[in-house]
Amino acid sequence: MSWAYFWSLFSISLHAMVPITLTAVGEVIGESAGLFNIGLEGILLLSAFTGTLGARAGGPILGLLMGLVTGLGIGLVFGVICAYWKGSQMIAGVGINLFALGFVAFGLQVLGSPGFYTVPRDVQLAPIRTSVGSFSPLIPVALLLPFLIHWFLNHTGVGLRIKAVGENPEAADVAGIPVELTQLLSTAVGAALAGLAGAYMSVSWLGSVTKEISAGRGFIALATVVFSGLRPLLALAGGLIFGFFESLATWIQSLPGVKEAVPWQFISMIPYVATLLVVAGVIGRVRFPKALGVPYRRE
Amino acid sequence: MTQGPGASRPRPFPHKRVAEFLLRAEGLTKVYPDGTVALSGVDLTVRPGEVLGLLGENGAGKTTLTKILSGLLPPTAGRILTPRGPVRFHSPKDALRIGIGMVHQHFALVDTFTALENVALGLGRVNFSLLRKKLERLVAETGLRVPLDVPVENLAVGERQRVEILKVLARDVKLLILDEPTSVLTPVETAELFKFLRNLREQGKAVVFITHKLKEALAVTDRIVVLRRGKVAGEVSTKETTAKELARLMIGVEVEPGRRPVELSLEAEFSRAAAPGPKGEPILMVKDLQVRSDTGELAVRGLSFELYPGEILGIAGVEGNGQTELVEAICGLRRVEAGEVELLGRKVTGRPPTELYRLGLAHIPEDRWKYGLILSFTVTENSILGLQRERDFQAAGFLRARAIRGHAARLVREFGIQTAGLSAPAKSLSGGNQQKLIAGRELSKDPKVIIAAQPTRGLDIGAAQFIRELLFRLREEGRAILLVSADLDEVLALSDRVAFMYEGTFTGIVRPAELTAEAVGLLMGGVKAGKG
Amino acid sequence: MSWVWRGFRPVLESVLAGLIGLGVGALIMRAWGYHPWPAYVALFKESFGSGYGLASALANATPLILTALTFAVGARAGLFVIGAEGMMYMGAMAAVALSLLRFPSGFHAFLALFCAAAAGILWGLIPAMLRAYRGVHEVISTIMFNWLSHFLSFYLVANILVDPIRAEKTLSIAKTSRLPLLLRGTDLSLGIVVAAGLALVFYVFLWHTVAGYEVRAAGANPHAARYGGVSPQKTVLLVFALGGIAAGLAGAVEVMGRPPTYAVYSGLTNLSGFGFDGIGVAMIGRIHPLGIIPAAIFYGGLQAGARLMQMEAGVPFEMVRAVQGVIVLALALPELTRIFRVLLRGWRLRGERA
Hints:
The complex is a heterotrimer. Chain A is mainly alpha-helical. Chain A contains twelve helices and four strands; from the N terminus they run αααβββααααβααααα. Chain A has a single domain (3-282), classed as Orthogonal Bundle (ABC transporter involved in vitamin B12 uptake, BtuC). The radius of gyration of chain A is 19 Å and the shape is globular. Chain A starts with a helix and ends in a 17-residue tail after the last helix. Chain B is of the alpha/beta class. In chain B, the strands form five sheets. A six-stranded mixed sheet of chain B has the order 6-7-8-3-9-10, sandwiched between helices. In chain B, strands 16-19-20-13-21-22 form a six-stranded mixed sheet, sandwiched between helices. In chain B, helix 9 packs parallel to helix 17. Chains in contact: A-B, A-C, B-C. The interface between A and C is large, with 47 and 49 residues.
C-alpha cells in the first residue's frame, strides 16, 4: 500500500469534515441559546440545492452566499416559530426536514434532472492547488471558525448573554436581555452556517446535488454537538472524527480487493455505527443548558 | 451612570410635597388572562430613606405588585409615577434605568456563571476589571461578602442571595425590592440581612420588603402596607402598630373565629402539643440514611428517626437542607446511597413507590406540578395515578371506566374539590383544589403513614386550613404523619415533635413546647441540641 | 361547550395547517411559473373525485397509517421516534424473505405479517435500549438505524433476495402470501383493514388499558408517572416495540398488497419515504390513532392526485411533500387557532381603517 493511499484518506477526511463541523458549531451557538434544531438535515439539503441555483446564476461565491442566506432564512422561520410563538422545536425541525425533502425533489425535477444534478464545472468553487493536492478554500474556514466561535461565546459580552439565555432565560430576562431576540438570532446564525455547509457540498466538494446529498450529516452534526457538550473546539474535534469515519468508508472501498471481500453496503455503514458508538459512549458526561428545548414564557 | 442616593439631591419641583416620594403607584390593577384579579386599585408610595414593609398572606397580591413595579408585568390599569412624571415599564430594564431593582424570591441567577459574570450580565458592555473593582468596593461598603470567581451553583443559598443583591446594587438603584428574602435564610443570615437593610436606609436608599411574617415586618421596617385579596387593607407606621393589629389587617374581620391562621394560634397550639406522645412500636424507621442530590453531593448525611402511630413529626428547617431528597428517598423516588428505611417492620429501602403504597405509605409531594399531578390529564385520570393497577380500577389490564369515574366523583364530593367537571383537565383547577385532589387520592389508599411535604405552600387561607385540619384528623385516627414544611410556624403549631434539619442532618428532635425562640434560631442555624 | 371546543380545536388546527400548506405550495408553484389553480384542481379531482382515485388514496394511506402509528405511540410516551423508515424496510425484507419458504395460502400471509412485525421490533430494540438505559436521544439513534437499515436493505435486495431473472428487483411475494385485493382493478388490498384495525387497537390500548394509561402518563409528566409507579425504562421498550410492529407491518403490507409486482425495487424506490411521511401524517392526525386514519387518507389522496397533477399541469408530484412539510411547520405552533384569530382581527382592523 503506497503513501498516496493514506494521503487520499487524509484529503477526503478534511473535505468530509467541513459540512459536519460548520453545521455543528452553528448548532452549538443555537443550542447555547436554548434552541434545539433537528431541521439541520433539511437545511443542508435545501441549501445544497439553492447553492447550485446561485452558482448557476452568478458563480460559486454567489452560490455559497445563496446557501448561507437559505440557512439564515430557514433559521429565522424556525426562530420565530420557536422563540416568539413558543412552538415545538421538535415538530418545527421535522417540518423543515420534510419540506426540504419535497422541495429539493421538486426543484431537481424542475431543473430537468430528476434525482441528480451536476453543477457545471465552471461555476464550482475553484480549489486551492498546492504541491500536495488541491483543497477546498472552505477547509481553512471550517478549521478556524470554531476558534472564533469559541472566543465569541466565552470571551465576549454577547456570548455571555447567549449562554445566559440558554441556561436561565428568566434570569436573562430580569437582567434586561431580550430573550426571544437572542434566541432568534443565535439559531438563525447557526442555521446560516448549516446553509453554508450545504452549499459547500454541492458547489465545492461534490459538485452535484441529489435528493440524498445530506445523507444524515445534519443528524451526525447533532451527534457531534452532543459529543462536544456545546464546546466549539470539541465540535471541531468531533467534526474531524466523523469526517474521518465517513472518508474511511469511501477510502476502504477504493482499496484493491476490499470490494470483493466485504459488500460495499456494509462499509457504507461505518460512519453511522461510529456515530452511535461515540454518542452512546459520551452521553451522561456532558452537560447541556438547563433550558435547552424548553420554550420560555414569562410568568 | 453613577448617581448618589437619588433623593438626597435637591431638585426643582413645583410642589415641595411631590418631591417627597421616590415612586408612587396609583390605582394599580392586574387581571390575568385566566380572569384572576390579582390586584385591584392599589395605591402605594415609596419615600427615600425608608424601609417599607409589604405584608400579606399568600395570594394577597404582593408578588404581582412587585412584578409590576419592577417592570416584569404590565398592569391592566393604573399608573406608576416618579418625581419626574409618569413612567411606563416594558421590561425590567426600564425599571432599572430609573433606579428600581428587584431581588426575586426565586433567584434569577445563571448557575454556571460566577458572581462576577452574573453581575455583568445585565450591564451591557462591561469591562471586567473595572467591574471587579466596583464590586470589591460595594462589598466593602455593604458587607455583602461573596466569592466573585466561583460558579454560583457552588455557593450557599445565603451567598447566592447576596449575589442577587449585588447584581441590583451594581446598577446604582435607588429603590431595592426584596420578595420574601428571609424564606431561604437561617436566623443568623436573616439578622445579617436586616443589618444590611438598615445600612442601605442610612445611605438614603429605599427598600420595599415583602413578607408574610409579622415579626419580620415589625423588626426591620419603618412603615407597613398590608395587602389583602389584591387591595390595600391598611397602612401603618411600624412604631405605632402591634402584631395583633397587623394580623387583623392581613386576615380581615370576615374570618370565622376558630379559623385563625396558624401564626396567630401559635401560642394556643403550644399548649395543645403536650400530646400523648409515642404510642407503641414505631411504624416508620429511618436508619443512617444517606442520599445524594441531583448534582451528586450528599444531601442527606446519615439521618435516623422513628415515626410513631398517632403523631405528627414535623421537619423544620430552611429549604435546601436535604428535606426534598429525604422525602424522595423514603418514598422510593430517589436512590438511597446508604442506610435503611423500615416500614411496618419491613425493610423497604429502594423499593418502588407502588410497593410502598401497598404497604400503607402515602405521599403528598412537595411539588404538585412535578410529582403530584399530570396537568394535562383529567381530574378522573389523575384520581387513579399510582392506583391504576389496583383490582378496583382494572380488569385483565383494561381500565374500568365506570369504577374510576365513581372514585373521582367520590373524591370531588368528599374533599369539596371545585372543578368544572370530572373531565376537566387538572390544570384548570386552582392550587388549593389541586392539592385537595392529591390529598384525596393519597388518602383513598387508606395509608398508615402519610408523608406530607410542604402541603400548604401557595394555598389560600381556606385551603391551607382545610389541609391542616385534615392532617390533625388523620393523626387522631391513629395514623402517623411526617410533615415537612419550610413554614416554621406551621410546623411548630401542628407537630407533636419537631426535627430541625440542617445540611443533611438533624440538629435536634424536640417537643415544640420545650422550645424557646432562641433555641429555634440555633437549631435552624445548625447548632446541635444537647439531646435528640 | 368547552369540551366541544377542546375536541374540535385540533381538527380545526389541522384543517388550518392544511390550508396554510396548500397556500405556500401555491406560492412555490407561482415562483416557478406554474399555475397553482389548475394544478390543485387536477390534484383533488383525481384523488377525491372518482372511485378509482379514492381507492388509490386508500391504498396510499395504508402504509402511512402504520408508520404514523409508530410515531404517534412514541410521541404519546414523550419520545420522538423517527425510526419508522428503517423499521419499515426491515418489515418489507422479512415479508419478501418469507416467500422463499412454502406455506398454505392465507397462513403464509399471516406468518409473513408476523415476521415483519417481529423484524420491526428487532430493529427498534437497540435504539430503545440505548434510550432506556444510556439516555441516548432517540432522534439520533433512530436516524442512524434508518441509515443502517437503508444499506442493509440495499445489500439484501441486490444480493440475497434478488430476482434471478430481473436484477433490479427482489423476488416477488409468493402467491400464497399476497394480501387479497378488496376492489378489482385497483390496488386497494386487505392491507387497509390491517392498518385501520391496528389503529383501532392502538386507540383502545392508549385510552382503555392500564399500560396505555401509563404510557400517556410517562409522556405527559415523566416525574408524576414515576411517582405513580410507572417504570420509565419499561415504557420506552414497550413503545418502541409497538412502534416496531406498526412500522414492520407497513413495509410488509406495501409489498404484499401492492400489484402488479409484489416486490422491492433496488434503491428501495417503492418504499422510501413512507416512514418520514408517516411523521407528518401523525402530526396532521394530532398523534391520535383515530385522527391518523383521515390524515393518512388525505395525504394518500394528495399523492394519488399528484401523478395527475404532474401530467395535466406539469407540476412535479414531489411538490406534495413540500406542502406536507409546511403543514407540519404550521402545526408546530401551539395555538394555531389563536394566532389565526389574532391575524384575522388585525386584518379586520386594517380594513376598518382603510
